[in-house]
Specification:
It is a single chain. With 189 residues, the protein is mainly beta. The chain has a single domain, classed as Sandwich (Jelly Rolls), CATH 2.60.120.10. It contains 2 helices and 17 strands. It binds fructose -6-phosphate (F6R) and zinc ion. Fructose -6-phosphate binds next to strand 5 and strand 14.
Length: 189
């Protein structure tokens, strides 16, 4: 079968795009209404054109015996109110599924949290590779002035669940205070 033969894609470290790819997905402010804490800023940004927050480029590398998905993400620089652009964030549905994230461009933080309330943030610069263990929700925040690009690998069997993060957020948010990225406690908690 064709899918059981090796395949390579060509990745651009600057743009985060690779070719060939199976699909790409765009996330705008209107896709993340519940995630950002300043609802007034959310509404006015949507009215002012609903800017792009991040894109995902994807290839599943499905074979007849397995899969190993590749997803690259490019988060634009920017803020909604004082809160930096970020990914939605999710848990994997399957309780035994980890993930590797590799930061190749930009700067920011990987936020991770368990259902028991343990929280950990990893500072990211180009070259940081993080292992996300099973059962840790994960979200990436771009605190820099250029796009943040990272590469992810995971099994399709992981599945994604967004509702818990949507309802509760992460323990801490990253906002700009006096020109600096600052952690503040999430006011939903
Ligand atoms: C897959 C994964 C990443 C994210 C991507 C977008 O398990 O963690 O490929 O899907 O960075 O973030 P979300 O999915 O949170 O919108
Ligand atoms: Zn994931």
């Amino acid at each position: 079968k064709k899918e059981d033969y090796p395949i390579s894609v060509q990745f651009d470290f600057n743009t985060g795009v690779f070719e060939p790819q199976e699909k790409s997905v765009e996330r705008k402010v209107s896709d993340m209404v519940k995630m950002f804490h300043d609802k007034t800023a959310v509404e006015s940004m949507i009215k002012a054109g609903d800017p792009l927050v991040y894109e995902i480029f994807y290839y599943g590398f499905k074979t007849s015996a397995s899969d190993m998905a590749l997803g690259t993400t490019r988060i634009q620089p920017g803020k909604v109110g004082d809160e930096y652009y970020m990914t939605k964030g999710h848990f994997h549905e399957a309780f035994d599924q980890p993930e590797i994230y590799f930061c190749v461009k930009g700067e920011g933080y990987l936020l991770m949290e368990t259902r028991e309330g343990e929280f950990q943030a990893e500072k990211w610069t180009p070259g940081t590779i993080s292992h996300i263990p099973p059962m840790w929700a994960h979200r990436v925040v771009n605190t820099g002035k250029e796009p943040l690009v990272f590469v992810a690998t995971y099994h399709l069997a992981a599945g994604h669940t967004y509702t818990e993060v949507e309802e509760k957020g992460f323990l801490k948010c990253l906002v700009e205070k006096d020109g600096k990225a600052t952690f503040v406690l999430n006011d939903k908690r």
